[in-house]
Known about the structure:
- By secondary structure, chain A is an alpha/beta fold.
- Chain A has helices at 48-56, 82-88, 100-103, 110-121, 126-139, 145-148, 158-170, 188-205, 216-222, 240-245, 250-257, 297-301, 321-328; strands spanning 6-15, 22-32, 37-41, 64-72, 75-76, 93-96, 176-180, 208-213, 225-230, 233-239, 307-309, 312-314.
- In chain A, helix 4 packs across helix 5.
- The model of chain A has no long low-confidence stretch (mean pLDDT 88).
- Chain B is of the alpha/beta class.
- Chain B folds into two domains: 6-255, Rossmann fold (3-Layer(aba) Sandwich); 256-332, no CATH class.
- In chain B, a hairpin with a 2-residue loop joins strand 11 and strand 12 (318-320).
- The two termini of chain B are 32 Å apart.
Amino acid sequence: MTQPLLSVKDLVIEFPTRDGPLTAVDGVSFDLAAGEILGVVGESGAGKSLTGSAIMGLLDPPGRIASGEIWLGSQRIDNLAEEDMRAIRGKRIGMVFQDPLTSLNPLYTIAQQLIETIRTHIKINESDARKRAIGLLDDVGIPAASRRIDDYPYQFSGGMRQRVVIALALAAEPELVIADEPTTALDVSVQAQIIDVLKEQCTERGASIILITHDMGVIAETANRVAVMYSGRIAEIGPVRDIIKNASHPYTKGLMGSIPTLAQADDRLTQIPGSMPRLTDIPAGCAFNPRCEQVFDKCRTERPFLVPNATCEVACWLYDEAAVKEGKK
Amino acid sequence: MTGPLIKVDKLTRDFDVSKPWLNRVIEREAKQYLRAVDDVSFEIKKGETLALVGESGSGKSTIAKMLVGLLKPTSGTVLFDDQPMRMDTSDDMQQLRKRFQMIFQSPFASLNPRWKVSDIIAEPMVVLGVEKDRNKIGKRVDELLDLVGLSEKDGNKFPHEFSGGQRQRIAIARSLSSNPEFIVCDEPTSALDVSVQAQILNLMRDLQDELGLTYLFISHDLSVVRHMANRIGVLYLGALVEVAESKTLFQKPKHPYTRMLLDAVPDLEMTNRMRKEITGEIPNPINPPSGCTFHPRCPFAEERCKIEKPKLLIAGSGAAACHLVEDGLLST
Lengths: 329, 332
């Protein structure tokens, strides 16, 4: 087997508080192959953005990686010194954030920002960097790139700004792009365009994408595999089609049913009772057990881990034959 | 047949976006206006849900505010049960105010953090003089809490103790406390997670069946609208471009903009349908394009679309504002 591009092993992220540490991400593991697009979905507070920040080494203190490992190729990157991490961030891992207005510096022109990023990571002179920057803007679909490059961020619309951010993320030809809710701040008609550009440009350059979003529709159109997160843990991970068509985990099933679709007639939406637990009172056993309809004794005491189930992996005791037998007794 | 509950006629609202007086004098600039809502007319029947969809800047929320008298129209009228909506505090306006309420987008900003939930829910009853007896108010609050799926104990808590979905339930309870007939819902679920959104949408539909409510439902999310509305109005740059029965709109959209919007919705069914390339963004509303405001993005645009503004014309069961639809040139 070839080595995965990115490997996250048993990642735990904690926030120390006066009443002891709060575990926001609890034992998340996944691999990402080169060129693969992995979607990470979950509701607010599921830990999806924290996982992304941890990979980029951008966890805001007091949040910290309590245990686990993150490997980029053959290099371990979760324990690197800030300076070494800086050489990776932007160079090998590109980033696209939710709000394009806050991720661009309003006081510099697009040219200055792009050229700075390119020259930080690649040894070329100013005019070559500028040519390259124009090429990048052209690739992400900014019309009249050679003229618009000298504009300031405020002169661009929201969708155009997000294109610029994608160009910035791709400036140093990274192997991995982490996109954290890249289209949430945009209108639907613009969202579709941005997703297309992101996917097309990354595929062309052979970069993998981790696409963090709460919108299952975006994942369905973009990703190869998807990880469904709940309360800081991965509930289910597998190929997008299988998760959408035949979800196994009761949470994924509920989540899929609660999404209104265009095709659906006007019947009631499936609803999951209650809401995601707060970090301070995550229940023992499976975090989803108080909301689950198929809950049995084992779910309340022991935490399920990911086990293979058909093409997916699912963390649910229902898919553990021994546990089910025991529970039925 | 009874008449419509709400009748909106040629509603228009301009906002003054001019520079300050001194700048205008020095730079010799005229006053500038932004037309947020442009000649919008529609009706809502009793017990019906009309949805308005559109992207940011299409005037959805401005229409909502004018409908409940929070904003004065530049021209045009809103009739509620044949009575004109005004912004004064006259007696008949006070009487009218009992009959409609509003639910806002963010349940974090729309509930006073210093008030107990029971006081928040009771406020419309007290202010509008629906009920004066304190015991009866207390009882009604308990009933309302129960109705929206919270418990009576929750009345003594403060808003910060609740999650987003629960807060939106409180906002719904508050809107119901004056026994209104008509509720304007301005993006009621866009701040919520999907599983919670499903709970709130189901609740709103149950309440409608139970209490015979009429909704104006405003959203940017077509799939949510599909789920809630009987009829749908599509807005683009402040003007209605298409009005149709919900089913018809999704099966046979007429206006090119509606088609584009439907194409843009990410597809969960994974049918791998080919979608048409979507181009362009909403133009600046201060200088909208001439003629049909959609023409720079429209794949079917002709010379005529650049010059002449199309009218919203009845076509079949719905209406569309497009020259090509009018002439029957677009296949459905």
